[in-house]
Write a structure and sequence with these properties.
By secondary structure, this protein is mostly beta strands. About 0% of the residues lie in helices and about 60% in strands. The protein has one domain (about 1-60). It binds zinc ion.
């Protein structure tokens, strides 16, 4: 089950929309490169009981 959520890139400030796989669990953490500035962030996904998705991003230094 996929849903869309967005986060703001900690490096360039762009809003990035990503697909979140809800079946992967209610707490997810992964590193993804920003499609705009290509710098990596740590993305944290939290899925609430009602299926609402919260995304947090943190800059990953290389
Ligand atoms: Zn960026």
């Amino acid at each position: 089950m996929l849903t869309e959520a967005s986060y703001v890139c900690a490096h360039c400030g762009e809003e990035i929309v990503v697909s979140v796989d809800l079946s992967a669990g209610s707490m997810q953490e992964y590193v993804e490169d920003c499609p705009v500035c290509c710098r990596p962030h740590l993305i944290r996904v939290r899925v609430g009981a009602g299926g609402q998705v919260e995304l947090e991003s943190e800059a990953e230094s290389e």
